[in-house]
Amino acid sequence: MLLGRIRTALRRARPVVAATALALAVGALAAAPPAVAAGSTLKAAAEADSRYFGTALTDSDLAVGGETAVARAQFDMLTPGNEMKWDTTEPSNGSYNFGPGDQLVQFAQANGMRVRGHNLVWQNQLPGWVSGLPQSQVRSAMEAHITTEATHYRGKVYAWDVINEPLNDDGSLVSDVFYQAVGSGYLADALRTAHAADPDAKLYINDYNIEGQNAKSNALYSIAQSLLAQGVPLGGIGFESHFVVGQVPTDMQANMQRFANLGLDVAVTELDDRARTPVSSGDLQQQATDYASVVRDCLAVSRCVGVSQWGVDDAHSWIPGTFPGYGAATMWDGNDQPKPSYTAALAALGGSGSGSTGSTSGALRAVGAGKCLDVPNGSTVAGTQVQVYGCWGGANQVWTRTSDGRLTVTDAGTTMCLDAYGQGTTAGTKVAVWPCNGQANQLWRLNGDGSVTGVQSGLCLDVTGASTADGALVQLWTCSGASNQKWTLG
Ligand code: XIL
Predict the structure, then answer these.
(1) How many CB atoms within 10 Å of residue 45?
(2) Which has fewest Cβ within 10 Å: 103, 151, 197, 456?
(3) What pLDDT score does 353 carry?
């Protein structure tokens, strides 16, 4: 009798033992660094959508190994941080220095990156001799500067920020030396001069605080309309996008779209998202949400040609020097480790290698189990852990991948998101349904190898114990490459 019970218990225990052994094997495999799927970079994902993903570097950054490694791997557009500005390129009247800018162009060319020229006319980083000129000479000095610099870089830059930051927040033109000497006509004059020197470059006006609809962007919109009506070769508007965490304007997409509707390209040119230091994990999560939403806004506007981050990592960003008390504004930390904002931006671009940013719907099939990801009884109770179950085509097994990287399911008219419960980032965290809230624990990356990674945790969607039974629960687990972590959508 007792022996019989032990035998029964052993028989029952066997599958559990097998599952534990597999979990251990999974753990052992997980010690190896996860393979980076081909295409799992910002530039590859952006290129799959005919966009670019850029960064800014200065000459001094070129000597920093970790930073340039990230730049080479991730970005396909380069903006010189300072080296094409007037104080560097023409420090005294008529004497030009293109050496520093040329170095960055060479770095870009050697690494398959295009170049955004930045910038030709700006009140800042302007050498004193320009402001000291008699008013009657400013216009010709401006034209000579533009002609010489744009001719030097002709054929080497994709675009020029011809005019940088011409507006005040109230929408009036900055009363700089150019405006004082020439009046508002300096804008058209600068653009025409640049076009004559480099007819193939896209010519931009670039500014900050114009990302949402406000007095400044309204004024720029009127200026753009009137320049185009005069036949001035304005080609695009650069939205610098120096944000504070949690403050990305909700109407950024609509605002960029209205400029695109004028027949202009639009680009996010200097993206960063700063927080008060020391930053909290909540700040980093909010930053992930912010980066994803800016990427999404660009992808939603067909004439948005790309997104550039200002700098590569937090250690070399301009933010701490210019905004004391703030930092952590980029997608890489001070040790060049990617932050949640990186994974969120990548997921918003459509993830690694899939290249698709359109939504895809269908069953999410667990390859190892041969079953489907299923919301038990179609529950709409927040926190219900998902399971695998025989595929039957019901609404509780239909998952939609949104362009920003969420996986939604709609039951009884209620749409919920696949969610790493409690923002958990440890192996064993349950995966549940929860009302969609745009947070990083609801962003998922569908990788080329069939794994599905939680953007926040970096862990993989995993059928517990590699079970093949109906009702086997689904959790986060260290990515192993095993078949209980392989999924197909659609
Ligand atoms: C910044 C550079 O990153 C700094 O190194 C420099 O000291 C100041 O300028 N808007 C622009 C950029 O258009 O040129 C600025 O770059 C950041 C704000």
Answers:
(1) 28
(2) 151
(3) 33
Separation CA 396–CA 472 (nearest Å): 15
- Stated as kind and residue range, the H or E segment containing 21 is helix 2-29
Percent of the chain with pLDDT over 70: 90
Query: What CATH architecture does domain 360-489 belong to?
Result: Trefoil (2.80)
- Measure CA of the first residue to CA of the last residue in the chain; give whole Å: 51
Phi, psi of 80 (to 5 degrees): -65, 130
Smallest CA separation from ligand 1 atom 9, residue:
82
Cα–Cα distance, 183 to 432 (Å, whole number) = 60
Check if the beta carbon of residue 52 is closer than 8 Å to that of residue 77. yes
Question: Per the structure block, which two tokens stand in for 33?
Answer: 């660094």
- Ranges of each domain in the chain: 4-349, 360-489
d(CA 477, CA 463): 9
104 pLDDT tier (thresholds 50, 70, 90): very high
DSSP state of 52: E
For residue 161, which phi and psi values (nearest 5 degrees)?
Answer: -80, 90
Strands (E), 350-479: 360-362, 364-366, 371-374, 387-389, 399-401, 407-411, 414-420, 431-435, 444-446, 452-454, 460-463, 472-477
Distance (angstroms) between ligand 1 centre and the Cα of 273 equals 15
Task: For ligand 1, pick from 207, 310, 326 the residue to mutate: most ligand atoms within 8 Å of CB.
Answer: 310
* Token pair 């260290």: residue: 478
For CA atoms 140, 146, 149, 153, give the dihedral sign. Answer: negative
Query: For the domain with range 4-349, which CATH number is right: 3.40.50.2300, 3.60.10.10, 3.20.20.80, 3.30.300.30?
Result: 3.20.20.80
Q: Looking at 4-71, which runs of residues are DSSP E strands? A: 52-57
Q: Which residue has the tokens 């009506």?
A: 229
Question: Which tokens go with 28?
Answer: 């052992």
240 lines ligand 1 (CB under 6 A): yes
**How many angstroms separate the CA atoms of 391 and 39, rounded?**
31
Query: Which residue has the CA at smallest separation from atom 13 of ligand 1?
Result: 164
Q: Residue 456 corresponds to which tokens in the numbers above?
A: 């926040």
Distances (CA, A) of 341 to 268, 277, 328: 16, 17, 11
Determine whether the shortest distance from the Cβ of 318 to ligand 1 is under 6 A: yes
Q: pLDDT per residue over 225-274, tens digit each?
A: 999 999 999 999 999 999 999 999 999 999 999 999 999 999 999 999 99
Is any ligand 1 atom within 6 A of the Cβ of residue 80?
no
Average pLDDT, rounded, for the chain:
90
